[in-house]
Write a structure and sequence with these properties.
- This protein has 7 helices and 25 strands.
- Strands 7, 8, 9, 11, 12, 13, 15 and 16 form an 8-stranded antiparallel beta sheet that branches. A 6-stranded mixed beta sheet has the order 2-3-1-4-5-6, sandwiched between helices.
- It is globular.
- The protein has 3 domains: 209 residues, P-loop containing nucleotide triphosphate hydrolases (Rossmann fold); 89 residues, Elongation Factor Tu (Ef-tu), domain 3; 111 residues, Translation factors (Elongation Factor Tu (Ef-tu), domain 3).
- It is of the alpha+beta class.
Length: 424
């Protein structure tokens, strides 16, 4: 079955964990011991209802504070589809956690409290989702039971967020009025909101057709390992192993070897299940080619007609993740991009991004924890990449502090569309 990756986001107390708990509970995706533990904890809290948020708030600190701190992944399936839910934190101080959880998502589920409407964090989460290349957003207007399921409260919130998502160029977005606590329009259609004529949330997710996919993007295979057996029997055997980042490849296809740009022909493709004629994104493969070319780990096999860029200086968007240090011009870091690692220096900090105003704050001296900015990087070796907006795998990277080996930043190559055309 097709897999759908979902990242949830919402301000503190908007009911995000409760909504995920409701989805898991109603689809019977909860183990008995987890359910028993949550029920016992609910009783100890002396609440009149079963606290569904306990099914996802797994850390002791989360349960005590009633907030989500870390990213929690939950899995469930229906006869139509398999799902992975990333429950990401809503608080601004955990922005880096949200970036991590949403980086691989197909859909962003943004939860808004109907009583409070669109708040700063609602906008922030929508902008981060757009920044991370998520092209479909579902907005759940939650706690409709607390405003008597009134359509006149729902519509202004829908209008405000619709305008923001249009500005962010999110063409595929949908709005659903729900009550996560009572289950209205989550798995089953609510009889208390007859004015809402569309499908409930789960059915919408089951039927969702994602705009574009990695299979429709040009072929990219970052080389992870060059296989050359030591046995004399296979002295002339050489193949290149890795996971296909995007697109597809088949035997007999002409491809380019980057960064040299040399072209060759695929002679065989092997998978863990044996030889195949064709493979596509997500497949772990070993590829053999017709020519004896200089290829090492970090190189990339790519579409001959649509080649990736090769450069050692480029503009990137960086989310800074370190509590101990800040990012400054001249900083020396290690960059990990696909299967390639190199040293990188920050040539300049172009600007800090104002998430709420969708604009640049002008030049800045540093990026601190959870801040996002536009940066010019220069690397010790050329990288082989696409813009993040075109390819989320070959357009993303992480930054590592060489002294501590700590991951201090996550980045996307290029400039978000809402900030204007890239200058570099």
């Amino acid at each position: 079955m097709e897999l759908l990756r979902i990242a949830t986001a919402g301000s503190v107390d908007d009911g995000k964990s409760t909504l995920i708990g409701r989805l898991l509970y109603d689809t019977k995706a909860i183990y008995d011991d987890v359910l028993d533990s949550a029920e016992q904890y609910s009783r100890r809290q002396s609440v009149e209802y079963f606290n569904l948020a306990l099914l996802t708030d797994g850390l002791r600190a989360e349960r005590e504070q009633g907030i989500t701190i870390d990213v929690a992944y939950r899995y469930f399936s229906t006869p139509a589809r398999k799902f992975i839910l990333a429950d990401t934190p809503g608080h601004v101080q955990y922005t880096r956690n949200m970036v991590t959880g949403a980086s691989t998502a197909d859909v962003a589920l943004i939860i808004v409290d109907a009583r409070h409407g669109v708040v700063e964090q609602s906008r922030r989460h929508a902008v981060i989702a757009a920044l991370l290349g998520i092209r479909h957003i579902v907005v759940c207007i939650n706690k409709m039971d607390l405003i008597d399921f009134r359509e006149e409260v729902f519509r202004p919130i829908q209008h405000d967020l619709h305008a923001l998502l249009e500005e962010l160029e999110i063409e595929s977005h949908h709005f659903i009025p729900i009550s996560a606590l009572e289950g209205d329009n989550v798995v089953e259609k609510s009889a208390r909101m007859s004015w809402y004529i569309d499908d409930p949330l789960l059915h919408h997710l089951e039927e969702l057709e994602l705009p574009g996919s990695a299979a429709s993007v040009p072929f990219r295979l970052p080389v992870q390992l060059v296989i050359r057996p030591l046995s004399n029997e296979y002295h002339d055997y050489r193949s290149y192993a890795g996971t296909i980042a995007s697109g597809s490849v088949e035997v007999g296809q002409r491809i380019s070897v980057m960064p040299s740009g040399a072209t060759t022909t695929v002679t065989s493709i092997e998978t863990p299940g044996g030889e195949v004629e064709r493979a596509s994104d997500g497949d772990a493969v070993t590829v053999r080619i017709a020519d004896n070319l200089d290829i090492s780990r970090g190189a990339m096999l790519a579409s001959a007609s649509e080649k990736p860029a090769v450069a050692n200086s480029f503009e990137v968007t960086v989310c800074w993740m370190s509590e101990r240090t800040s990012l400054r011009t001249g900083a020396m870091l290690r960059i990990k991009h696909t299967t390639h690692a190199a040293r990188a220096i920050v040539s300049s900090l172009e600007c800090k991004v104002d998430i709420n105003a969708l604009s640049e704050l002008g030049s800045c001296d540093e990026l601190r924890l959870n801040e996002i900015g536009q940066v010019i990087l220069r690397t010790s070796e050329p990288l082989i990449f696409d813009r993040y907006v075109d390819n989320r795998v070959t357009g993303s990277f992480i930054l590592i502090d060489e002294a501590s080996n700590e991951t201090v930043g996550a980045g996307m190559i290029g400039r978000p569309g809402y900030l204007g055309a890239a200058a570099h």
